[in-house]
Design a protein that fits this description.
41 helices, 5-stranded mixed β-sheet, about 15% strand, alpha+beta, 7-stranded antiparallel β-sheet
């Protein structure tokens, strides 16, 4: 079983998820008992006024036959003309025609008609609930078709509202007939029946249209005001908007007069969206209902307007009338959980009209706001029990990279159909004015949200009001594009503007004028449009099979069982519709990133213009010619300009834009079918079945021996009383108080997006099957770890610019090593740091490095890059000075190339003189003697200052300078700068002996073969300490007292530049450093490699002369199942591609286990405070650092070079404090996840605090291991001493000041730190014991007799003769068969390898050759013994995956 990821240092307190609801408000008419305003509130007309319409709905419809002498019944109205005023006669001019005429009657004596239809008899059956009007009032046939064969009998059908529907039931308010042949169209807000009323061959086609609405009379309208709210105080992050009451009652707060026996209508639920200045959305849900209104608050004029007073008899009150007013209760939230809001508001309304209750209404409101959280991964399901009979279920939204919204694509498709949905998509893309209206206010917000969501990744930039109140209806006359939703009753008073596209959701119709008609769908890309329409049509046919019942009416059993299954099907369809629009947008913008124009120079005026950021004409030419008209309009829209700006400079939507880029890569616009893999996938949330129950508020305790009597009864919704609300203080069992996430405010956020994590996980799973790819995958994550720590590393450096350049060289090193990065965090962090520290030129170099590496920057990285270039401060003036210095540098390099033949000729002359017999006793010049130094040479060079050696110091201490001038503070000159450049380049061959450097001028520099002056010797320089460059980080630079350095300079003659250049070019026995490591790299050099002259500047070789502390690390772990040691490369090969699995697999028994990282700290500092100790002198046998190196024939000293006592300058006599421990050895995938969590929670500055080793030891030691393994610079070794010293003093300038890294040495060991004394000793330890070679540990246990020196020499002899199979067979024969034979914790391969390394020395060991010979030996033995037996006796060699891991990370070469 996979072990879970470790979180050390104590788990962080679980953060409380955000509240579901932030505010509760009540809106309506203000005042309690006071008279209402005399003048009603009437909004300003936003369009031409319509004539007043009749107040009563249509309750009956009839057909009369005029040819049969029938008259219009009393109270009926006859339709004699069409909507355009043309005379209208059905079956006119036909013999035998009845001349039918349609009539209707208004009234309130019966339920109104709600729907009409046309029935062709014999071809279909009537719809359920419809009645057929087959006879006239005079009992004749009501057939509308002309007589004769071939004409189906045509009848009207109707459906009536249910009994007791109330005064405010929807009903048909108007009828009309239209003649399409006369150019008449369907009137606005009317529903047109598709069947022709005149199906015969003669006469024009006639269609019946009807309008559905609310027929109200005697109504006064006032502007809604805020009556109450909770909480009373505003949240600083989310203040309550002032316009909330207007949105709660968009049609105003009304006072109406009803018949006394009229039932109260069902409350109306509506939703709205408020958009902040920053583009953030606030979601609201309101429940509108009616309450009794006292007549005393009405004036005589208002009572007369409401019909309460007789119009004939002045002042006489009419009986049988009741006055009602409209109110609304609402909640506001940052989450579009509209079903939950509806259930909660409905519960509050029912609570207010029932009773009595033991708890006040305020207790339920405060309890819901304070104790109901938004679902989170820790609480995926929340069941809120509001009362014993009322509950609601909250489920965590599906994890999706798309932005969360209140959109319902199913309602959009169901209301409009596929064709109209595509037409609206085209209208939104070209920024037309859209007016969406419906009689159902809750439908407006869902559809409008879908309209602005289906154009993702584009973001609507113009006015957007999903539910527009009458008070804001002026926006319909705005000269800018908009998307506005409004109640259809608005059109009872006003006609729509002429330049607006009106969408009627109730009739599924679209109204538009010819001059403002959007483009035809044929202008869309042909194949993507075809796929979109086919997909929407297929999904439209599945909508009738889904459950559409309201969630608040579901039972508790249904909520816990079938709710998720039914809603899951709806969620699937919702995602499929959304995915269809997403695929179309991805095809529409396919390849747009190829036309982005990155900034590469200092920004000028208009740098943020879309023309400078995007190649519009190139993008247009890459599209289909048939779609150019669409693209021309799209590219000129505000939302496309905003989209390009977001892609170029980053935004809060960067994760969503990155997801869209991945969708663009997946789609293929040339296909006629959608891709098999959906773009929007339903992800598993957490697999948790946890359901959190929120209980109702507790009732107050009753006196002993009695029950608490209900005392709260309401006639309507009450005014809120502050003393009845529950206190927001936490109670036992309540959720913890939310706490802000701590982060570094000014540091980059090196976080991966969810999309990047998904891609990295996918890459790791694919790489795990290929050995070489798996090793490169781990290596890429290790470099990602270093760049995660880069902000803290740069912040700790005294020269941030040099630290940034160091990171850039690490990028170059990654490219040279062919590192495969799982994401772009490495580049992104460096670019963001360049922006933070004002280095735009370096950002451009990083971008070029990305392109050179073949990495296409995603939206986030590209945004950080352009932001760094745009916002950073560029150097003022022209770059002439820099160009001149660059030219001068090229001249110096050219002179060096011309000097190369002279050096070659001089070398040949020296060889000829040494070979001539007559010159055997001749004395060579001192200048030529210097080409054979007696010890390896180290140097220190920088661009910004010279490095001087103090000949009086026994250790060759470096004295540093921080400017281009001399070390004594002389003013920098051009000549001094050239001298420094020549010194830094190290490419010219100077004079053979030192010459005093006079004021750093060019006159001190000899570019010819002049005779050297006296005054210097080779021994003056000595061997360099392991120090950093003058611009190295403060925590890493070697600290030398400046005062002492100046005194030494004062009594030391200046040393000529020629001497130092001669020493730098003098060959030494030590192989040169490779190109990879930057200046701060650890001292151990990689294998020899060809180096350029610049390598001497960028990669000096350093080795410490003495250390105050030594850290030993080993990842070798013991498998408890088979008692075998598993080594680093085998552990890496056994890791799973999972960022939560800590286990590796043992290569011998295949059992999973958690490997451990063993740590041993050796602190040699004095316990009492004292100045920094001078370097200790080594023993007589040990090679002194900086002194002559050992000769190769002295095998004991050569093999002892790697021992800590010799490397550190200690002989073992100094007392040391030893601390040891072991922590889990984490895979780079797991470690990165843990490190990202730590940085996100505590900020990047935690990685430079001395408390890090104690607070997060697992993360700290794993990071130190990987950084040392890859020779990457870091401040982690310094934190070990800083943590031992305790907290820094208060006068320290910053918490990142750490000890000198030269005093800390980190050694990575291949074998265990402390061998098990109860096991057999390793062979290489026995070899060192027999050879009397000093070693790190002494074997404490007994040595078995078979493991003699003769055995070791025989094994080595066979290996030296390339007969490894005989060495393996000898060891197997000596150990004996298991389980009776000797048991070695190390495998046969490992024992022979370590023994060979111990005997030959690591510099003379070729592991690749050894592996080839061992593999050949294994195959040879397998033919005789069998592979299975060899594996049981642990004689197999590491797997190919383990060998590739060792090849990528490098062998440790130290046991």
């Amino acid at each position: 079983m996979a072990a879970d990821a470790v979180s050390e240092g104590g788990a962080m307190a679980e953060e409380r998820p955000p509240r579901l609801v932030d505010y509760f408000v009540i809106a309506g008419l203000s005042g309690s008992g006071a008279p209402i305003p005399e003048e009603p509130w009437v909004p300003e007309p936003s369009g031409p006024l319509r004539p007043p319409r009749p107040a009563d709905p249509i309750t009956d419809v009839a057909v009369i036959a005029r040819a049969l002498g029938e008259e219009v019944p009393q109270g009926y109205t006859c339709i004699q003309t069409s909507a355009g005023g043309h005379p209208l006669e059905l079956s006119a001019g036909l013999l035998g025609g009845t001349q039918p005429v349609i009539c209707y009657r208004r009234g309130r004596d019966k339920p109104p008609l709600v729907e009409l239809g046309v029935l062709y008899e014999g071809k279909e059956r009537p719809k359920p609930g419809f009645q057929v009007l087959d006879t006239t009032p005079y009992s004749h046939s009501a057939n509308l078709a002309p007589p004769g064969p071939g004409h189906p009998r045509t009848y009207l059908t109707y459906r009536r509202a249910a009994e007791g529907a109330g005064l405010h039931a929807l009903g048909i308010t108007d009828l009309c007939l239209v003649l399409p042949s006369k150019g008449e169209g369907t009137p606005h807000t009317y529903c047109r029946l598709p069947r022709n009323l005149n199906p015969g061959m003669w006469g024009p086609a006639v269609h019946l249209c009807y309008k559905v609405g609310l027929a109200k009379a005697n109504t006064l309208v006032y502007e809604a005001e805020l009556l109450g709210r909770y909480p009373e105080e505003d949240n600083e992050a989310f203040p309550l908007p002032e316009s909330v009451p207007v949105f709660c009652l968009p049609m105003g707060a009304t006072v109406e007069c009803w018949p006394a026996q009229t039932k109260y209508p069902v409350p109306v639920f509506s939703t709205f969206v408020l958009t902040g200045a920053a583009g953030d959305k606030v979601y609201g849900a309101a429940l509108q209902f009616y309450e009794a209104f006292p007549r005393a608050r009405l004036s005589e004029r208002q009572a007369r307007a409401l019909g309460l007073l007789s119009a004939v008899e002045r002042g006489r009150a009419l009986g049988g009338r009741a006055v009602r007013s409209r109110r609304a209760i609402a909640v506001l939230s940052r989450w579009p959980a509209f079903p939950a809001f509806r259930a909660f508001l409905t519960f509050l309304y029912r609570y207010s009209v029932s009773g009595p209750h033991r708890l006040p209404l305020e207790a339920h409101i405060s309890h819901f706001i304070h104790n109901v959280p938004f679902p989170s991964p820790q609480r995926p399901r929340i069941l809120v029990q509001m009362s014993p009979y009322d509950n609601l279920l909250l489920c965590q939204p599906v994890s999706s990279p798309l932005p969360l919204s209140g959109a319902s694509f199913l309602q959009l498709l169901q209301s409009l159909g596929p064709e109209l949905a595509v037409t609206l998509l085209l209208a939104v893309l070209t920024e037309h004015k859209l007016l969406v209206h419906s009689l159902r206010p809750d439908l407006l917000t869902s559809v409008c949200e879908a309209l602005v969501s289906m154009i993702f990744p584009l973001h609507w930039q113009c006015p957007y009001i999903p539910l527009c109140p009458l008070a804001l209806a002026d926006v319909l006359n705005a000269p800018v594009p908009f998307i506005v939703g409004i109640h259809s009753s608005y059109f009872d008073l006003h006609d729509p503007p002429a330049d607006v596209i009106c969408v009627d959701l109730d009739t599924n119709t679209l109204f538009q004028t010819e001059e403002k008609k959007p483009l035809s769908p044929r202008t869309l890309p042909r194949r993507p449009y075809k796929v979109l329409l086919a997909t929407l049509t297929h999904l439209y046919q599945q909508l009738d099979q889904t459950y559409t019942g309201p969630e608040e009416e579901a039972s508790l059993e249904f909520l816990l069982t079938d709710y998720e299954a039914v809603c899951g099907r709806r969620a699937r369809l919702e995602r499929e519709v959304q995915g269809a629009f997403l695929r179309f947008m991805a095809c529409l913008l396919k390849g747009y990133r190829d036309f982005l124009r990155p900034l590469t120079q200092a920004p000028s005026e208009g740098a943020r213009d879309v023309d400078n950021l995007f190649f519009l004409q190139g993008f247009l030419k890459s599209r289909e010619r048939s779609s150019h008209k669409l693209y021309c309009q799209l590219l000129r829209t505000q939302m496309f300009s905003q989209f390009i700006e977001e892609c170029s400079f980053g935004s809060a939507r960067h994760a969503a834009l990155e997801f869209f880029d991945s969708c663009v890569d997946k789609v293929h616009p040339e296909q006629d079918k959608p891709e098999p893999t959906p773009l929007v996938e339903l992800e598993e949330l957490s697999g948790s079945e946890l359901t959190v129950f929120i209980t109702p508020p507790e009732e107050p305790p009753a006196p002993e021996g009695s029950e608490s009597a209900p005392q709260y009864c309401y006639d309507g919704f009450p005014e809120l009383r502050a003393e009845l609300f529950e206190s927001p203080q936490e109670q036992p069992g309540a959720l913890p108080v939310p706490g802000p996430t701590r982060s570094a405010p000014n540091s980059p956020a090196p976080r991966r997006t969810k999309q990047e994590m998904k891609v990295a996980q996918r890459m790791a799973q694919k790489s795990a099957a290929v050995p070489e790819l798996w090793a490169r995958c781990l290596l890429g994550h290790c470099y990602g770890l270093w760049f995660l720590c880069l902000p803290a590393y740069v912040r700790s450096a005294p020269s941030r610019v040099q630290a940034l350049h160091t990171a850039y060289h690490v990028l170059r090193q990654m490219e040279s090593r062919k590192v495969v990065l799982p994401d772009e965090v490495c580049y992104r962090v460096l670019m963001q740091l360049c922006s933070h520290y004002g280095q735009p030129v370096l950002s451009v170099r990083v971008m070029l490095e990305m392109r050179r590496a073949g990495v296409v920057p995603n939206t986030i990285t590209y945004g950080y890059y352009n932001k760094a270039v745009l916002e950073s401060k560029w150097l003022s003036g022209t770059p002439g000075g820099r160009l001149r210095w660059a030219k001068l540098r090229n001249v110096v390099l050219g002179a060096a190339q011309f000097r190369q033949p002279l050096r070659e000729r001089r070398r040949r002359q020296q060889q000829q003189q040494a070979a001539a017999p007559e010159a055997g006793g001749a004395q060579t010049e001192p200048r030529l003697e210097r080409h054979s130094p007696t010890r390896p040479l180290q140097r220190q060079t920088t661009w910004a200052g010279r490095s001087f050696r103090d000949p009086a110091s026994p250790t060759g201490r470096l004295v540093k300078s921080g400017s281009l001038g001399s070390a004594r503070g002389a003013q920098p000159t051009v000549e001094a700068g050239v001298a420094h450049m020549i010194e830094a380049l190290g490419v010219l061959e100077p004079r053979g002996s030192p010459v005093p450097w006079r004021d750093g001028s060019l006159s001190d520099l000899s570019l010819t073969g002049e005779e050297p002056a006296s005054g210097g010797s080779p021994e003056d320089s000595g061997s360099a300490l392991s120090t950093q460059s003058t611009e190295a980080p403060e925590g890493l630079s070697g600290r030398t007292p400046k005062a002492g350095g100046r005194q030494d300079e004062a009594r030391t003659p200046r040393r000529g530049l020629g001497t130092r250049l001669q020493q730098l070019l003098t060959p030494s026995r030590r192989p040169p450093a490779s190109r990879g490591p930057p200046p701060e790299l650890p001292p151990d050099p990689p294998p020899p490699a060809r180096r350029s002259p610049m390598d001497s500047l960028l990669r000096p070789r350093e080795r410490p002369g003495s250390t105050a502390s030594e850290i030993l690390l080993s990842s070798c772990s013991l498998c408890r199942a088979c008692d075998s040691l598993v080594y680093d490369e085998e552990i890496m090969a056994g890791w799973a591609p999972d960022d939560s699995n800590l286990n590796t697999v043992c290569p011998f028994c295949a059992c999973p286990f958690v490997p451990l990282l063993s740590v041993q700290t050796l602190d040699s500092r004095p316990r009492a405070p004292s100045p920094k100790p001078a370097p200790a002198s080594g023993s007589r046998d040990a090679p002194v650092p900086g002194g002559p190196g050992p000769v190769l024939s002295d095998r004991r000293l050569c093999l002892a070079l790697d021992e800590p006592q010799l490397c550190n300058g200690h002989t073992g006599g100094t007392s040391r404090r030893v601390e040891a421990g072991a922590w889990a050895y984490l895979s780079p995938l797991v470690l990165r996840k843990e490190l990202e969590s730590l940085v996100e929670n505590e900020g990047s500055e935690v990685l430079a605090l001395p408390e890090l080793p104690a607070a997060h030891p697992i993360i700290f030691w794993n990071l130190l291991w990987y950084f040392q393994r890859l020779r990457l610079p870091s401040i982690l070794p310094c934190l070990v001493l800083a943590s031992c010293d305790g907290p820094p003093p208060p006068q320290a300038p910053s918490p990142w000041l750490t000890p000198d890294p030269a005093s800390v040495q980190v050694r990575l060991l291949w074998d265990v730190l402390t061998p098990d004394p109860s096991s057999c000793p390793p062979l290489y330890v026995l070899w060192r014991v027999h050879s009397q070679i000093p070693q790190r540990v002494v074997w404490p246990g007994p040595v078995p007799a078979p493991l003699s020196m003769d055995l070791l020499e025989s094994v080595l002899r066979y290996v030296g003769l390339s007969e490894v199979h005989k060495a393996v067979g000898l060891l197997l024969e000596t150990l004996g068969p298991p389980p009776t034979g000797l048991h070695l914790q190390r495998g046969i391969y490992r024992e022979i390898l370590f023994l060979t390394m111990a005997a030959l020395g690591k510099d003379h060991m070729d592991i690749v050759t050894f592996d080839k010979r061992y593999k050949s030996a294994f195959n040879k033995l397998a033919s005789s013994m069998g592979k299975e037996e060899l594996r049981q006796r642990r004689a197999q060699m590491p797997t190919a995956k383990a060998i590739d891991c060792r090849k990528c990370f490098g062998a440790l070469l130290e046991c």
